[in-house]
Amino acid sequence: MYVLAKTHFLFEKGNMSIPHDIMISISGIRGKIPGSFTPQLAGALAYAFAQTLPPGPIVVSRDSRASGGVLKKAVIDALANAGRTVLDADLSTLPTTQFAVVSYKAAGGIDITASHNPIEWNGLKLFGPDGIYIHKKALDALVTDVTQNDQPVVKTTDNKDIITDIHTNAEKRHRESLRPMIIPGKRLRIAVDAVNGAGSYIIPHFLDECGCDVISLATDPTQPFPHTPEPTPKNLVWTKRALKNIAYDLCIVVDPDADRLLFIDEKGRLLSEEMTLPLVLLELCVRGDTGPIVVNMSTSRMIEDIARAHVCVVYRAAVGELNIIDMMKKHRAFFGGEGNGGVIYPRHHYGRDSLIGILNVINCMRRTNKPLSRLADELPHYDMMKEKVTIGDRGALPHIYTSLINAFPQGTVNEIDGLRIDFDNAWVHIRPSNTEPCMRIIAEARSVKKVSHLMKSVHAVVDVYV
């Protein structure tokens, strides 16, 4: 882990190079630490970001990674040198940070997190005064400023005078804002795997306010992640093992910044993260919500099936929370999100929020008096496969797309985000990752056999280039 040198300077006058392995996308900036993502880089980016915001304080938060403390110090030093005051939310979920920016009428926000990436990664997520990610063009301008323009001398200082601690109150405001949506009912026993991340405190507190009993599996942010943090089946063997011999109604799993959510039912069955959005949408529709819905290109067709039954229209956007939100605003959508378990309900706030997903699944179980396993079984059935393929040269992607279009002439082509090809009862989506140095391939069909055949056919084309 990096430790700031006992020096007067965080970084000195001059420009700064950004290593090629730093990932820059609408989901923020992230890299490995120790490695290419240094406190000096974090400070330089924070200082440049402060110059772009309107007057006012800036919310700063982090997840539970060991590198978060030194990065937060670097960020706050930079903001202090930029003449800013700081609202310190410290260990807070990403949605709590976004909600706090709006709730406290801040000029913007910085969350120090690498989200679902492994523990050796960290980064910055940047938000404007609306609590929404800044656009890629603005992010690129920050990078240009840091790399091409001389930066002023930034000194490390005792910044107590410019910091206001809002951690407890920010979490409280977030929870309290959701209380009116709680449906009283059966006292459910709910296990929580917060991967010892930023959701370790707020989720158990919120469940208690919902009238549930909490079984803590990984809710100690002073401890390391018990497993690779991305909530996928291969990473949750530890969670399923921890649930053995425990009686519970459902288990909640979130990533380190708690903007992604999935469930394990009372039988120990890991529900696909693709089921999170349909379960929440179904509850909202039954309770009277209606209107347009926006999801990304990689999200299951279950959404269309449920929307059709409730006379709602579905629009699809490129992958990335900001892309979803932009289209939601355009169509005045009441609901949206991503198939990775990211729920967006703008009547509360624009941002992926696991608490909203948790609340609506609890409400659905209480309203119907059905176990989670039955609710999941009642959803439209599809089988999906998700794969990551390492690709050394992203310049090969256009050739891969052209070859796939030629290989599947019967499909309907969409090139909004990489390449998506739709068939009558199946689809496949191929795109470069925004957050990792790889290409993602997602395919869905009505059966395991059909989706496996589709994925095999895709690999017959893709593997020539990788």
Automatic annotation (TrEMBL):
Outline the extent of the Alpha-D-phosphohexomutase C-terminal domain: 407-457
Q: Alpha-D-phosphohexomutase alpha/beta/alpha domain location, by residue?
A: 27-151, 182-268, 291-380
Repeat is among the record's keywords: no
Q: Has keyword Phosphoprotein? A: yes
Give the cofactors, semicolon-separated.
Mg(2+)
GO BP annotation list = carbohydrate metabolic process; peptidoglycan biosynthetic process; UDP-N-acetylglucosamine biosynthetic process
What Gene Ontology cellular component terms go with this record?
Answer: cytosol
Which InterPro entries does the protein's record reference? Answer: A-D-PHexomutase_a/b/a-I (IPR005844), A-D-PHexomutase_a/b/a-I/II/III (IPR016055), A-D-PHexomutase_a/b/a-II (IPR005845), A-D-PHexomutase_a/b/a-III (IPR005846), A-D-PHexomutase_C (IPR005843), A-D-PHexomutase_C_sf (IPR036900), A-D-PHexomutase_CS (IPR016066), Alpha-D-phosphohexomutase_SF (IPR005841)
UniProt entry keywords in alphabetical sequence: Isomerase, Magnesium, Metal-binding, Phosphoprotein
Q: Name a GO molecular-function annotation.
A: phosphomannomutase activity
- Entry's Gene3D superfamilies? Alpha-D-Glucose-1,6-Bisphosphate, subunit A, domain 3, Alpha-D-phosphohexomutase, C-terminal domain
The record's annotation in Pfam families points to: PGM_PMM_I, PGM_PMM_II, PGM_PMM_III, PGM_PMM_IV
Family assignment from sequence similarity: Belongs to the phosphohexose mutase family.
Q: What is this protein called?
A: Phosphoglucosamine mutase
What is the protein's species of origin?
A: Candidatus Berkelbacteria bacterium CG10_big_fil_rev_8_21_14_0_10_43_14
Top-level taxonomy: Bacteria, Candidatus Berkelbacteria
